[in-house]
Amino acid sequence: CPICYEQWRETGQAIYEPLLWSLNVVKICPHHHQLLLTECPHCQVPLSPLAWRSRSGYCSRCGGWLGFCLQPFALLSDTLTKTELNWQTWVVKTVGELVAAASQLILTPSREMIGRSLSAYVNLVAFGNVAMLARLLQMPKHAVWQWCTGKVLPQFDTLLQVCYCLGTSVLDFLTGVVTTAVVDGITAPLPPKTRCANTAFCRTIPIEKLRRQLEAFLEDNRSLPLPMTQVAKSLGYDVRILRRHFADLCHAISQRYLDYRKAQHNQKLEISCEEVRQVAFRLFSQGIEPTRSEVARFLSKPAYFREREVCNALLQVRYRLGLEM
Questions:
Q1: Residue 144 and residue 12: Cα distance in Å, rounded?
Q2: Contacts with 178 (C-beta within 8 Å, 6 or more apart), sequence order
Q3: What is the domain partition of the chain in residue ranges?
Q4: Which residues are CB-contacts of 19 (< 8 A; sequence separation ≥ 6)?
Q5: Of 227, 233, 215, 229, whose CA–CA distance to 261 is shortest?
Q6: Cα-flanking dihedrals φ and ψ of residue 77, to 5°?
Q7: pLDDT bracket for residue 24 (50, 70, 90)
Q8: What are the E-state strand segments in 234-287?
Q9: What is the third-level CATH fold of 85-174?
Q10: For residues 65 and 267, what is the distance between their CA atoms, to the nearest angstrom?
Q11: pLDDT digit string (tens) for 209-227?
Q12: Using CA atoms, how far apart are residues 152 and 91, in angstroms rounded to an integer?
């Protein structure tokens, strides 16, 4: 989550990658409801949780910082429907509960346990009719029957969809806790199916229309620049498809965003440098040596002392005051 990274750095907290982020079924941040980054916004290389020379918060390929605060127009509400947002929010909650309780489970969930739980819902919702439950879940009858008999284990993403429709958490389902919330039938809408990345290949691409839309993004000076990944999502196409057909435009959009990010970063650095100078001179006038630790106590964002430019600003002040030779 870029917002988590940015907040952790600005507040001086430890920067790490929560376990939830590495699970394929989790697509959003549980705190900010922001879509998790899957590609580096700088070099567009897919992000891997375990990459060679990896460093939390930075791209393992180009070393670019992955944190930034999105503007309101780039938030999740602009890229997901209400139904999709409800589904993803539920996934984050139920998977988080499962991960938190995993070490305390006495028994490892088995085919038999899953079969018994699903059979209980067959009796509760479908009057013992497996085919009826399959229709309600909009899933293949043969697959549901195999799950009930314990012959086959459902994939985890499929199990999530089943639990979502039945109105129960995955933890309760795996531990045999049956909820009666669905006694009157399944009322929750089915979660939206994840759009496969290669589905874009199976439809006709309106080349000229997309070209005009990309040019509009590039020439729009009224809105703040967006990374290419966000532009692609707003257009409803995989970013790789757009790069294949509009390499120059995509490169220009990415470069415009990088220039904007660099300018924002430099502006923040200059503000921090000026704050360091003012604090250092004030401390010296009070008879206190402006060391890094003393100055940091009075800064609004002491974490910026990690930046070389901010450290140099303090060093220059100390030279002017005769504290450094």
A1: 50
A2: 117, 120, 121, 124, 168, 172
A3: 1-81, 85-174, 196-319
A4: 99
A5: 227
A6: -60, -20
A7: confident
A8: none
A9: 434 Repressor (Amino-terminal Domain) (1.10.260)
A10: 16
A11: 888 899 888 888 888 888 9
A12: 23
Coil, helix or strand for 203? coil
Q: Cα torsion at 176, 180, 182, 183 (round to 10°)?
A: 120
As a residue count, the chain comes to 325
Look up residue 47 and give its DSSP letter. Answer: P
CA distance 121 to 159: 14
Beta bridge partners of residue 35, listed in sequence order: 28
Cα separation, 146 vs 140, in Å, equals 10
Give the model's confidence band at 198: pLDDT under 50 very low, under 70 low, under 90 confident, else very high. very low
CA distance to 95, 98, 169, 178, 321, per residue, from 175 (Å): 14, 11, 10, 9, 68
pLDDT at residue 281, as a whole number: 93
Burial profile 23-59: b = 16 or more Cβ within 10 angstroms, e = fewer: bebbbbbbebbbbebebbbbebeebeeeeeeeeebbb
Please name the residues in contact with 8: beta carbons below 8 A apart, sequence gap of 6 or more. 14, 15, 57, 67
Report the alpha-carbon distance of residue 149 to residue 114 in Å, rounded.
Answer: 9
28 forms bridges with which residues in the sheet? 35
Distant-in-sequence, close-in-space partners of 109: CB < 8 Å, separation ≥ 6? 174, 175
User: How crowded is the C-beta side of 162, counted as CA atoms within 13 Å?
Assistant: 28
Three-class secondary structure of residue 108 per DSSP: coil
Helix residue ranges per DSSP H, 58-205: 82-101, 111-126, 130-137, 141-149, 156-166, 170-174
Q: And the tokens for 21?
A: 């982020």
Q: What is the pTM of this model?
A: 0.57
> What distance in Å separates the CA atoms of residue 236 and residue 239, rounded to the nearest whole number?
9
The dihedral formed by the CA atoms of 137, 139, 145 and 150, expressed in degrees to the nearest 10: -90
| Two structure tokens written together for 270 | 């200059």
